Amino acid sequence: MQGEEDSFPLMPAGTGEARGSEPWDYVLVADQARRSARRDEQRQRFLEALRTKGLHVTVVEDPEQLFFGIRADRSRCALYRALLVQPDGPAPAVEATTRIRIVHSVLNSKTADGHTFNDLVKEGVFEISFPLHKEDKALQRWAQWRSIFCKQPIDDIRDYFGEKVALYFAWLGWYTTMLVPAAVVGLVVFLSGFSLFTSSQISKEICEAHDVLLCPRGDHGRTFQRLSDTCTFAKLTHLFDNEGTVLFAIFMALWATVFLEIWKRRRARVVLHWDLYGWDEEQEEMALELVSCPEQKLRLHQHSFLRSAAVLLLALLVICFIIGLAHFLVVYRVLAAALFRSSPWPFLEEQVTTAVVATGAVVHYVTIVMMTKINRYVAQKLCDLEQPRTLRERERKFTVRFFVLQFFTHFSSLIYIAFILGRINGHPGRTVRLAGQWKLEECHPSGCMMDLSVQMAVIMGLKQTLSNCMEYLGPWLALRLRLWRRGCARGDAVLREWQRNYLLNSVHIFSLFDEFMEMMIQYGFTTIFVAAFPLAPLLALLSNLVEIRLDAIKMLRLQRRLVPRKAKDIGTWLQLLEAIGVLTVITNGAVIAFTSEFIPRVVYKYRYGPCQHGAQPGVNCLTGYVNHSLSVFYTKDLRDPVQLEGLENVTECRYRDYRNASDYNLSEQFWVLLAIRLAFVIVFQHVALCIKFIAAWLVPDVPQSVKNKVLEEKYERLLAKMWFRGQGPGEARSSPATPHSSPSCRSTDV
C-alpha cells in the first residue's frame, strides 16, 4: 500500500527532480510488528508536527515496515538562506546536503508535546531514520579498488557527504601522499642497516665471543648463555639501531611540521573554493535551530569550576587505571617468562625472551581493543557531565577526552619498554622480584631496542591488518546476512530503493569521528616512536592506500548515508596533530638517548676506545666496545645453583650494565653516560624544535593567492557600495571601475 500525503508526486530514489516533483531526502521507518493504537496516535501527532514545521511527508508501506519519506519545504530553505545571507555577500546555496541538514535539525527539535524523534524511537513509535543514498557515478568510480592510485573527487564528495567528510578524505589523501617521502627515507635507513649486517664491528665481536658467558636470565635461569648465541639478534638490532637513526628522527620531526603547514595551505585553498572562508559554524547551528523551531531560546555558554574539577579528577582516575593495565602487562610478561622456561618444548625454553615479547605485544593489542570500548563510554559520560552547549562543543570535548584515554591505552606499554624495562631489576645476585618471588623481566640480550622494535612491529601489523579486515568484513557480512534474511525486494521502485537503504548498516553521529581517531593513533605510531621502527611510515602508507578505498566503499555501499555537515577545517584534530608533533621530538630524543646504543657507542669512540686520542689507520674505533659495555659478575655470588654443563671452571659471567666488579655499584662510566644522555636529549629537542619553528615560519598557513583573493573580494564589495551610493554631491554615478584603473590614484605604504 502506498499513500501520498502531499501534493507532490513520488519520485524513485536516486533520480533527479522532474517537472512538478522533488526528490525525497530523508526516510523514517516504523516496525509493523510493534504497531498499536497508542503508537499510531503518537506517530500521527509527530508527523503532523513535522508538517507544521515545513516538512513534506509521504507514506510507503510493506508487510514488515512503514516508510515515511521526508523533504524540506522551499519556504524552510528560503528561511535558511535569509538567516545566513551576509550584508555584503551572496546568499548561501541550498543544496541537497543543506536540505538533509534542515530535515535532520527538525527531527531533533522538540515538538509541542516535548518529544523528539529519539524519544519516540525509545518508545517504539519509530525504529530508525536516515538520509537516502543517491546515484553518483563519479563517487561509484572512486569507491573501486582499481581507483586506488587515482585522484579523489573531493568536490563530488563534498556535494554528496558534506564538507566535513570531504575534508577528512582531503586530509587523509594528503597524509598518504606525504607518507611517500617518509616511507622512502625510513626504508633507506632500514636498508642501510643491512650494510652493517655482517660488517658491523659490534656484531663481529658478539658473533666471535664464544668464550664470553652471559649470566643466567629470568627467574628460573639455571644455565649460562654464550654471548655468541645472540649473534643473529645482534645483527637484526642494527637494522633498526644504526647511525641513521638520529638523522631519521630529526627528519620525521621536520616532516611532521611540513606536513601540517602544507595541509593548512591546502585547506585554505579548498575552503576558499567552497566559499566557506568566512563561514561561521556557530551561526550555522543557530540558524538551523531557528529554522526547525522559531521559538528556540538561545542557550548561553556555561562553566562550572566544580563540574570541571570533577571531570578532571575522574579522567585522572581512568588514566591511572589504564597505567595500571600497563603494569598488568608487566606482570604477564614476568609470569609468561617463568612459564615458558618450564615449558616441555625446547624451542620455547631457548627463545624465552622472544616469545615473551611477541605474546606480550599480542596481549597488548587485545587490551587495546577492549579498552577502546571502555574509553568511548567514559569519554561520553564525561561529556554528559560537562553539559556542552552545542553539538560542535560536545564533539570537541569528546575528541580531546577520548584521544587522551586512547593515547595512554596505546602507548603506555611502549613507554614502559622504552624507558623502564630492564632498568629497575637490579643485577645478578641481587635482583628485584615481583611479590618477592618472580624476578622482573630483562631486556633482550641484544638490547632494549630489540624489544621496542618488535612491540612496534607486532602492534602496527596487527592493528593495520586486523582493523582493516574487521572494518570491511564486519559490515559486509552483516549486510549480506540481512539481505539473505529479507529476500528479494518487493514493491515499486521507491519502496525497493528505501528497503535497500534500510538494510544497510547503521551509522551514528560519531562514525566519522571513529575514522579520524583511527588515523590519529596511526599517526602517533608513525611519528612518536619512529626512531625504534623506521618502517612505520611504510606500513602506514600501505595501510592508508587500502583505508581510503575501504572508507569509500563502506560509506557508499555498506552503510547508510551520513548526515552531511558543514565545516571549514578538521577542528580539534589539528591541535592534536600539533601536540603529537611536539611529543615526536621529545620521545624520539629520549629513545635515542636512553634506549638506543647510539650514545654509548659515540662516547666509547671518543673517550674509552682506541680512537680516544684520534683515529688510527686500520683500526675500527668501536673495537672492544662489547667487552666495555658488559659488566663482570662472579659466579660465587650467585644465590641460585647453576648447571655448569661442562663449564665447572667458570668463575665469572657478564651482563649488560655499567657496574664495578668489586662491589657491583654503578661505575663512573654509568654516570658519564647518564650526563651525556641528558645533555643529548636537551640539545636534540631544542635543535628539532627550532627546526620545526623555522619550518612553520617559512611555510605560511594561508597562501598569498588565497589572501589576495579574499582581499580582492572585499575591495570589490566596497567599490560596489561606493559607486552605488555615489562619490559625492553632483557626481555622476557610473559603473564601478576595476582595481588600479585610475592612474591618478596610487597606493601608499604606511
Detailed description of the structure:
The protein has 750 residues and is an alpha+beta fold. It has two domains: 2-132; 154-188 and 197-599, no CATH class. Helix content is 59%, strand content 7%. The chain is built from 24 helices and 13 strands. It has helices spanning 37-52, 74-84, 96-107, 117-122, 137-142, 154-161, 163-195, 201-208, 231-240, 244-273, 281-292, 305-341, 346-350, 352-386, 391-419, 448-486, 493-503, 511-527, 536-558, 572-595, 598-608, 625-629, 668-698, 704-725, and strands spanning 2-3, 26-31, 55-61, 65-72, 128-131, 213-214, 225-226, 426-427, 430-431, 433-434, 438-439, 630-634, 652-656. The strands form five sheets. Strands 1-3-4-2-5 form a five-stranded antiparallel sheet, with helices on both faces. A two-stranded antiparallel sheet has the order 6-7. The chain is elongated. The termini are far apart.
Which short descriptors sum up this protein?
disordered N terminus, 24 helices, 5-stranded antiparallel β-sheet, 59% helix, 750 residues, two-stranded antiparallel sheet, alpha+beta
Structural class: alpha+beta
Q: Beta-strand percentage?
A: 5-15%
Major pleated sheet: 5 strands, antiparallel
Low-confidence stretches: 1-21, 728-750
Total individual domains? 2
Radius of gyration over C-alpha positions, nearest whole angstrom = 33 Å
Strand order of the largest sheet: 1-3-4-2-5
User: Helicity, in percent?
Assistant: 55-70%
Head-to-tail CA distance between termini: 75 Å
* Secondary structure tally, helices: 24
The shape is elongated
Number of strands: 13
Average pLDDT reading: 80
